[in-house]
Amino acid sequence: MNERILSEDNQVVRRFFALDTQTYKDGALPARTKEMLGLVSSLVLRYDDCVTYHVVRCREEGVTDEEMLEVFAVGLVVGGSIVIPHLRRGVDFLDRIEGEGIHATKPEHSHT
Amino acid sequence: MNERILSEDNQVVRRFFALDTQTYKDGALPARTKEMLGLVSSLVLRYDDCVTYHVVRCREEGVTDEEMLEVFAVGLVVGGSIVIPHLRRGVDFLDRIEGEGIHATKPEHSHT
Amino acid sequence: MNERILSEDNQVVRRFFALDTQTYKDGALPARTKEMLGLVSSLVLRYDDCVTYHVVRCREEGVTDEEMLEVFAVGLVVGGSIVIPHLRRGVDFLDRIEGEGIHATKPEHSHT
Amino acid sequence: MNERILSEDNQVVRRFFALDTQTYKDGALPARTKEMLGLVSSLVLRYDDCVTYHVVRCREEGVTDEEMLEVFAVGLVVGGSIVIPHLRRGVDFLDRIEGEGIHATKPEHSHT
Amino acid sequence: MNERILSEDNQVVRRFFALDTQTYKDGALPARTKEMLGLVSSLVLRYDDCVTYHVVRCREEGVTDEEMLEVFAVGLVVGGSIVIPHLRRGVDFLDRIEGEGIHATKPEHSHT
Amino acid sequence: MNERILSEDNQVVRRFFALDTQTYKDGALPARTKEMLGLVSSLVLRYDDCVTYHVVRCREEGVTDEEMLEVFAVGLVVGGSIVIPHLRRGVDFLDRIEGEGIHATKPEHSHT
User: Fold this and answer.
1) pLDDT in tens, E15-29
2) D18-57 pLDDT, tens per residue?
3) Phi, psi of E78 (to 5 degrees)
4) Which secondary structure element, helix H or strand E, spans residue A57, and what is its range?
5) B11: chain E residues, CB-CB within 8 Å
6) pTM to 2 decimals?
7) How far is residue F13's CA from residue C86's CA, in Å, rounded to a whole number?
8) Residues in Cβ contact with C47 at an 8 Å cutoff, skipping those fewer than 6 apart
9) Contact (CB<8Å) C23/D12
10) Which of C7, C13, C51 best probes binding to E when mutated, by most E CB atoms within 10 angstroms?
11) D82 CA: distance to closest CA in chain A (Å)
12) Do B69 and F10 touch (CB under 8 A)?
């Protein structure tokens, strides 16, 4: 579906997508830290699509179970009990990718 | 005012405050990383009080200007243009603490 | 299910629903513009149910693909990358109604 | 300023304001309970203007300090640490109205 | 899945869950009132998982249809039309538990 | 302060600001409509800084009082009573710019 969005001649949307990809590249902070920042942001804004995306990316960057759970803990305390179902689905998803070896499918600009 | 809140006999509130303090201690992730997680969460939830608190704490943990700005960049792209005024006040505040040597006043449980 | 809600004797809820319908009628601004306002509001508040409703209504009011995408672009820049999955589902839904000739089912007061 | 808003010929806005007033009247639930519902909603949506309004109204309806703090506790746990500054200002405001005998100024439709 | 979360050695998460359970116990306010506070908070924060949980709990505490609808009305007026789909699913769910005698499955710390 | 932000070498932030400016230019939709879209988005996301900015911009684009109030009405119904204080400050601000002839100060990339 990205193709449909990108084939439309809307430069603002296309540029935003490019910017989104650029944001998580290594810089002063490594991609690993940035992905954890993306994960906690998705948690407090309570968006499962982005939580699972960043869980996979964090795992690819070598974030351990213990570290991941601490990211979740920050999100939980900042965002409150309303975050719990997202945290659960995040942990559940983490379990599944362990078993199944899922990788972040990252077509150009694909995440949130 | 914390005293007033804590002197009231509400255990839930008191425990939440203790938990909040515990969240940012060194663990699998160092306090430094956790403060950056707290900062980006405050940015996307758009709360100046917490942004300034975490800016000071990040600085105390040795987060550089370049790193801080990258945390802001993640918050901006995830949270959108609605985040800009908070980003501005965050950068402005950063400038002021440079000149004035402000430290995070951290009475027990004081932040968000 | 609206019947159930409306058959309950809660005047506040019934009046709110009537008000909601009235809001999008032609006035100083045409319904066409108001539906675009409803669409961008639903996008930044990230609610798919309302996004699809307003996409259909916008289409019925003659909003073109190019215009629709510009509404999406405003929502994306104001609301941030967290809006992307909603934008995708909105565009996807737009594609489907093109093919299938879907119309906004508008039982009295039915939308958001 | 309400006069300015109401003198404008916008029926939707005027009706919304009337509805807002009607919402908190005694019904199946007493006004007292409804004001506590309004208070916790304002807390989790983090809006000081509405928090102080509902704190005053709750006090007028005879809600005690202990009860008020339990409403705050629910808001804190549901909404997370991001709610803390609002809770503080709410408790601070509560202290002030104790000393000063503030009453909810309730010009027709005046609150949130 | 709770077991997985709790078996992980993250004290912050475990304590938050315990606190969440404690919040809704009888205190200065009865559990019945607190569950209504939890319900309206879930509505304005627009989270179906928590809405259904609290609907069941409210029913268990003897909240009547008329009272429940007034809680919904407060949530609708405070939170706006964006709340409508959640209100609908809440009412729909209420209908189903009437027929089926659903009870809140409350494994330790299970809700939001 | 923009200078400080832009002088920092963070390309993501700079590009986001440029994109933000580009978003509201005439396109398939005229700037006038886009500014109304920006206004309603700021209202439902409840951000005064952006509300006042877009009120000024709408006025510059020739949006009338009646039209402006209808934009406010959509924001109020979608976003709920929590929007009222912002609507008030928006109307108040509108009154002031009438008398004082305020123009949107638009340093490059300055708004939200």
Assistant:
1) 999 999 999 999 999
2) 999 999 999 999 999 999 999 999 999 988 888 999 999 9
3) -70, -45
4) helix A48-60
5) 22
6) 0.87
7) 23
8) C86, C112, E46, E82, E85
9) yes
10) C13
11) 6
12) yes
